Amino acid sequence: MSDARWPTTRLLDLLDIDLPIIQAPMAGAHGPELVAAVSATGALGSLPCAMHTPESARNDVSAIRKATNRAFQMNFFCHRDPKPDPAPEERWRKRLARYYAELGVDPAAGGGSRAPFDEPLCEVVEEVRPKAVSFHFGPPPGDLLERVRKTGAKLLCSATTVREAVFLAGKGFDAIIAQGSEAGGHRGMFLTDDVAAQVGTFALVPQVVDAVDLPVIAAGGIADGRGIAAAFALGASGVQIGTAYLRTPEARISALHREALKNARDDDSVLTNVFTGRPARGIKNRLIREVGPISAQAPAFPSALNATMPLRTKAEATGSSEFSALWTGQAGRLGREMPAGALTLALAAEALERLRTLAG
């Protein structure tokens, strides 16, 4: 039975969960341990699969199910890989040449990739049948989307504008993740590339709620009970929280990233495309200050990774995060160092207390 203490139980009923909290999928930042810890509380853990092979995705799903029998979701990127063209990458490497020389890095070293949702990954979904599947950068091609739908999985997707939300509703999605500009990591935009016009969470959520008759999940700048309560006040049926989980022991981020999050100020994050070729929110460092934050020379996502990953690897080996993608949302300083399960329960309790207070 759904918990009537929440203003709406639409998301709880849809996903068969107890807490209207989704742990955001953060590719490269966590694995099955974090997913299972969150799902075990009755919230929804999310397995990011953008850096997975089909086999590694199967292995992580198996690990999650050994740890908990509660619901979780799998998340996939739906970008289109750019056509092979060495010219943009070569221009980008020339732009970064002085850093290669400074660090003693081979410009042709390469490294880093993000896989779009495809036939082999779809076969994994059909095999393991998660409770939900979410997509970033728009929906997959129609045939793949229908195959996922036929597994019985609930379909979620990020939207950064009302137009994107309406588009997704028309494609038969079950819930919309309204991602505001405050969110850490990559923008989920797919019908626009105008990052300068991205809407904030407080403005986006109520407009999406008014535009679609689906549960809306607020994402971006939410890291404590106050933010969760505010999302419900805006009409959301739940929240997606990412950055707050990066300081949990289950997160797999580097010690350098943890230290940066611990010391970050509220104005330390910016939108940048210099690491991957696609706008994402992270903590300012040397590469962003000197090359970006937004550079027209950066090749299309995910090609830019081939040029920046060797710099990151070499710099981190010397204890420097000046060339690392330190993804964070604008509420990063609200994060807490505590286990993911305890954090999830604390967030829910704080939100319910705040909602009771507001109700008088």
Indicate the structural class. alpha/beta
CATH topology of the largest domain: TIM Barrel
**Over the alpha carbons, how many angstroms does the gyration radius reach?**
20 Å
What is the CATH homologous superfamily assignment of the largest domain?
Aldolase class I
> Can you give the helix content as a percent range?
25-40%
Distance between the termini: 25 Å
Identify the overall geometry: globular
Topology:
Layout: H1 10-15, E1 21-23, H2 32-39, E2 45-48, H3 54-67, E3 72-77, H4 86-95, H5 97-103, H6 119-128, E4 132-136, H7 142-150, E5 154-159, H8 162-170, E6 175-179, E7 185-186, H9 201-211, E8 216-219, H10 225-233, E9 238-241, H11 255-263, E10 269-272, E11 280-283, H12 286-291, H13 305-317, H14 340-359
Helix pairs in contact: 2-3, 3-6, 6-7, 10-14
Q: Could you explain how this protein is built, in words?
A:
- The protein has 360 residues and is of the alpha/beta class.
- It has two domains: 10-79 and 114-252 and 334-359, Aldolase class I (TIM Barrel, Alpha-Beta Barrel), CATH 3.20.20; 82-113 and 269-327, no CATH class.
- 39% of the residues lie in helices and 13% in strands.
- It has helices at 10-15, 32-39, 54-67, 86-95, 97-103, 119-128, 142-150, 162-170, 201-211, 225-233, 255-263, 286-291, 305-317, 340-359; strands at 21-23, 45-48, 72-77, 132-136, 154-159, 175-179, 185-186, 216-219, 238-241, 269-272, 280-283.
- The strands form two sheets. An eight-stranded parallel β-sheet has the order 1-9-8-6-5-4-3-2. Strands 7-11-10 form a three-stranded antiparallel β-sheet, with no helix packed on it.
- Helix 6 (119-128) packs parallel to helix 7.
- The protein is globular, with a radius of gyration of 20 Å.
- The model has no long low-confidence stretch (mean pLDDT 95).
